[in-house]
Design goal:
heterotrimer, A alpha+beta (about 325), B alpha+beta (about 300), C mainly alpha (about 450), B: about 300 residues, alpha+beta, Immunoglobulin-like, C: mainly alpha, Formate dehydrogenase/DMSO reductase fold
């Protein structure tokens, strides 16, 4: 009897550990033993139907994807995901200033109208060199100058490499904005004007929501998405696969459609980082704008009016 | 293969271009319409579930907190699987309850219907999805000269038997965050007439977990008949990953207040203590003056 | 001080005793209160609507609040120069100027810290600095040194005030009851015994030594708020010394202005003499030359190399949109003062007063030019933002708040002068006696 019980439990466990997860649910990521994300049985069982029409009994805690992921505590959000080292690759040869990344990002984080966490810059390094479009996010530096200068630990670097902001702690001194050489940070100069149901939510460092008046905001690498095994909003929104995101420890980056071995991609396409000489060690790599998919001019129509005026000068 | 891929990509790009141009012109005239998306998933031939997404506009931006009714085969109170609300990123997961066992078993094909409620009945939005029951299997083998091969087989259910499914496109490789790192050179593979795919594994010295294990996966995405299928197998083919545990012992200028560098703490405390110590001494001198004065006063 | 040798102690006390506001004093105070009230109203608007009422935006994230802050910190440094450095080096003529310098220092440092709070997006979270303070942040260093400097300055103001409080309590009938109560509370224990003088003199000496490194720290750390970033125009190893030399200059300029105003307003010609102006004139020339030297370092060296990022910034200052302001600040802040004050006739009270005003005004614009143009020249181009983000001119609220803080500094000084003798009575009497004896 006892034996039978154990085997049944084992069956359940293996069936469920294999997971019902799409993508990369927390339990099936290969570094889980290290991450310490062991799911504890809740004791609450649910019965569900399998493809064959069999009835399978599952502990609710093992149900994947978890219907309601419990909110991450401030402490967890500050520590980050163990065993991960997030990295982004931006392929300049594919960007034509569509700005779908920006729209998705602004929409999901309710960024103040006019401000952007992702900017797509019209770049030209020298008079005779070719112009190109360069999307910029927060670089999530490994030697973050912004974190160095924060007087209250409101912006912090996590073990998974992500630099986040705690808007419940930020005093709004804006030293981090002055310190960031990439001008990645924006400030909530006025009340963000969010609908009350959003504004009343508890602030989460991982979703950077809801934005708060008088505090700093910036690209957060969407750790709330990666926790559930999904890609950041900009990555999945880009129609041209410009953004690739992944875990350096897994040596893989993906834009959803294509998946590359990070080390090979960087080597083959001569990836580089912005302002390497400053020693900030960004987590965002760029692939040079060679063999482009689009002519530079095709992106001009998407420039905002204020930049177009500048261009016509 | 590569050429086909290239033409397909460029075709897709042209399509994207057209769609984006269209959407730009459309956005000027038409109000962004809400819609509902329905996808079907089976992972490791286990429990099937539906992903419901409420979105808005041509760009399919998420529409949070929408009420969606999901039906099996036909929209009617009897066939209501669940009345659910999408979350803050416009998503909801729907499992098939046990009560539908008979209905599910009765047919090899099923139709899912999602109805997103609007403010008025006219604003209701519907989506349908037809699915054929299917299963996917993964196996690995190694030849004597060390070449590793992954074999994946897809079958579908017809007349109470499992039949090989040809022409099913899938990814085969190592399961990674947000995607599958292809085992071979091609991004995707397609099943032959026996419903099988064989891929030679070419990812040498790839990082695994602490023991050097990683998960092989074969994934069919948004197939017209079968939906999304995923099968996984853990193999010890990788390089053991050595976690860097130094992060929380680092003392640098960018760490938290609790991990300030020792040299900085030493300098700061010695200066502050020195200066404030002197000031406390001076305040005591002031006290002395006061006592002296009070004594004279008496 | 030859020209006060024939004065009796009673005469000195009579001359230097704090006086009620005259008509002009009332008008002056009234105007200052009005300006301060306008500043308060502007700050109320800022609290209510957020920093959106300012014209600071994501690129120019620091505006005139911060340049005002740097200006106040700079001006407050003079307390340590005139009081401490001159006292330690036994520069006797500085005696009548010590208290002027010290009260400028105290009121400026108070408003420097206030304006930092005003600049914060979340002033109500100020306590986070104590609860979650990171010692790695230069802001934290600044908070610590400013607090320290404030307390040292207060002590340095208080110790020499004790004998004067005794004198004022001796002439009770001259002050109102409330003031007498205040004097009694602060100094009734001072009996002027030799032991008390011994302890007090020693304490003042220790304070004078202590305040010098702390004063250097406050302004060096303030300069590090900029120099610890990568930005062109701020990324300089010269910044600490550059800021300190500029601070001594503007502080001395402010003391000269204050000397002239007090001398006129309270008829102190016997105490703040032409000789004082002559000496201060020399000090100002020396400091202006020193500041000019650091300016040349600060601009010539990067201009010689013209690194790409520096080039945009420097050309903006030399010949671009900031050129008029830049050259004005250089001219009135350094060049003209040097040329006026190297001549003996330039070191007379009135020209000194005008030059002092020019130095202070030039210094204020100089601080603005240190803060703002740099922020308008980031490494990556300013794009994908509204056009208003590309420029900066302060809004009326910012002007009102900056003006209000300025009025606040002047109000503190004004009320201080109303309550306490601005020229140390006791020390003046003592020196007068010493001179008389020497003459005999």
């Amino acid at each position: 009897m006892e034996n039978k019980d154990t085997s049944r439990r084992d069956f359940l466990a293996t069936a469920l550990l294999a997971g019902v997860a799409a993508g990369c649910g927390p339990k099936k990521n290969p570094f889980d033993d290290y991450a310490g994300n062991d799911v504890k049985a809740s004791g609450e069982m649910v019965k569900l139907l399998s493809v064959n029409g069999d009835i399978i009994e599952i502990d609710k805690a093992f149900l994947k994807p978890v219907p309601d992921l419990p909110p991450v505590s401030n402490d967890e959000a500050r520590r980050g995901i163990a065993g991960k080292k997030f990295v982004m690759v931006i392929d300049l040869s594919r960007c034509k200033n569509v700005k779908a990344c920006q729209k998705a990002c602004n929409h999901m984080h309710q960024v103040h109208p006019g401000q952007n966490w992702i900017k797509v810059l019209e770049m030209q390094d020298a008079e005779q060199t070719a112009p190109y479009w360069e999307p910029t996010t927060c670089m999530h530096c490994d030697e973050p100058p912004c974190v160095k200068v924060c007087p209250v630990d409101a912006t912090f670097k996590r073990q998974d490499g992500i630099v986040l902001i705690d808007s419940d702690r930020c005093i709004g001194c804006r030293f981090c904005m002055a310190a960031c050489p990439y001008s990645a940070r924006v400030f909530n100069w006025e009340d963000p004007g969010l609908p009350t149901e959003v504004a009343d939510q508890d602030y989460s460092c991982e979703s950077s929501m809801p934005q708060k008046k008088g505090t700093v905001g910036k690209c957060d690498f969407c750790p709330d998405m990666t926790r559930t095994g999904e890609l950041p909003h900009c990555v999945s929104a880009c129609p041209n696969g410009v953004f690739m995101f992944g875990d350096m420890n897994q040596d893989t980056v993906t834009n959803g459609a294509e998946t590359f071995r990070f080390s090979e991609l960087i080597k083959e396409k001569s990836g580089y980082r912005l302002m390497e000489d400053l020693g900030t060690k960004p987590s965002v790599y760029y692939l040079p704008p060679v063999n482009r998919n689009f002519p530079f001019e095709s992106g001009l129509e998407n420039q905002i009016a204020d930049d177009k005026i500048k261009h016509s000068k | 293969m590569k050429n086909i891929l290239k033409t397909r990509i460029s075709f897709l790009l042209v399509l994207c271009l057209m769609v984006s141009v269209l959407s730009i012109s459309a956005q000027d005239t038409v109000k962004a319409e809400p819609s509902v998306k329905l996808r079907y998933f089976v992972n490791n031939n286990n429990i099937q579930y539906l992903m419901v997404k409420s979105v808005i506009g041509k760009k399919l931006l998420p529409l949070p907190m929408k009420v969606v009714n999901v039906y099996l085969d036909s929209a009617g109170a009897d066939n209501l699987i669940i009345k659910t609300t999408t979350d803050k990123i416009g998503k909801a997961i729907v499992f098939i309850p046990v009560a539908f066992q008979e209905k599910w078993k009765s047919n090899a094909k099923h139709n899912f219907i999602a109805v997103m409620e609007g403010a008025t009945p006219e604003e209701e939005v519907t989506a349908e999805l037809e699915i054929t029951k299917s299963k996917i299997e993964i196996d690995t083998s190694s030849s004597e000269d060390g070449v590793r091969t992954i074999t994946v087989k897809v079958m579908f259910y017809e007349n109470n038997t499992w039949v090989p499914a040809p022409d099913v496109e899938m990814r085969v490789g190592v399961s990674r965050l947000g995607g599958i790192l292809s085992a071979g050179d091609a991004e995707t593979y397609t099943t032959d007439s026996t419903g099988s795919v064989s891929v030679e594994f070419k990812r040498d010295s790839l990082a695994g977990d602490l023991q050097g294990n990683y998960i092989l996966a074969a994934k069919v995405e948004d197939n017209d008949s079968y939906g999304n299928l995923l099968v996984e197998k853990t193999v010890p083919w990788g390089v053991a990953y050595e976690p860097d545990t130094t992060f929380f012992s680092l003392r640098t200028l960018w760490t938290t207040q609790f991990r300030a560098p020792y040299w900085l703490l030493f300098m700061a405390y010695s200066i502050v203590l020195g200066v404030w110590g002197t000031m406390i001494y001076l305040i005591r001198q002031m006290w002395k003056i006061k006592k002296l004065g009070d004594a004279v006063g008496k | 001080m030859e020209n006060i040798k024939h004065l009796t102690s009673e005469q000195i006390t009579q001359d230097l005793f704090p006086r009620k506001f005259g008509k002009l004093g009332m008008l002056w105070t009234g105007i200052l209160l009005l300006v301060a009230a306008l500043g308060l109203y502007a700050y109320y608007r800022q609290l209510r609507y957020g920093l959106i009422v300012t014209n600071m935006r994501d690129y120019v994230s620091w505006g005139i609040y911060i340049s005002n802050f740097v200006f106040f910190v700079a001006i407050s440094l003079v307390g340590s120069l005139i009081t401490a450095v001159f006292r330690l080096t036994k520069v006797e003529w500085s005696t009548p100027l010590t208290r002027i310098a010290e009260i400028i220092a105290v009121s400026a440092i108070v408003f420097a810290s206030l304006i930092i709070v005003i600049d914060m997006g979340r002033p109500e979270r100020f306590m986070n600095l104590a609860l979650h303070g990171r010692i790695q942040s230069p802001i934290m260093w600044d908070v610590i040194v400013i607090c320290t400097y404030f307390f040292i300055s207060i002590l340095l103001l208080y110790f020499p005030l004790l004998p004067d409080l005794q004198i004022m309590l001796k002439y009770k009938e001259k002050s109102s009851n409330a003031l007498n109560k205040l004097y009694r509370f602060q100094g009734s224990f001072w009996k002027g015994t030799p032991e008390q003088f011994k302890i007090s003199d020693r304490a003042i000496n220790i304070l004078c030594i202590l305040i010098v490194p702390v004063a250097f720290s406050i302004h060096t750390v303030t300069s590090w708020l900029f120099a610890t970033t990568y930005r062109p125009g701020w990324d300089s190893t010269n910044f600490g010394a550059y800021f300190i030399s500029g601070a001594f200059l503007v502080g001395s300029g402010a003391v000269v202005v204050a000397m002239y105003v007090f001398r006129k307003a309270y008829q102190l010609e016997n105490y703040i003499t032409e000789k004082h102006f002559e000496k201060m004139g020399r000090v100002v020339v020396l400091l202006a030359l020193l500041y000019l030297y650091f300016n040349i370092n600060e601009y010539l060296v990067p201009a010689f190399k013209m690194k790409k990022a520096e080039e945009v910034h420097l050309m903006g200052l030399f010949s671009g949109e900031f050129a008029p302001l830049f050259w004005t600040a250089i001219m009135i802040g350094m060049i003209i003062p040097i040329f006026v004050l190297i001549f003996k006739s330039g070191r007379k009270p009135l020209p000194m007063f005008i030059v002092g005003c020019m130095v202070v005004l030039g210094a204020w614009f100089k601080r603005y030019l240190i803060v703002t143009p740099t922020l308008l020249h980031p490494f990556l181009p300013m794009q994908d933002v509204p056009a208003s983000y590309h420029h900066y001119f302060p809004s009326w609220e910012e002007w009102a708040i900056a003006g209000g803080s300025m009025a606040g500094v002047l109000l503190v000084i004004t009320f201080f002068v109303r309550i306490y003798p601005i020229i140390p009575i006791h020390e003046t009497i003592e020196e007068n006696e010493k001179h008389t004896q020497n003459q005999d």
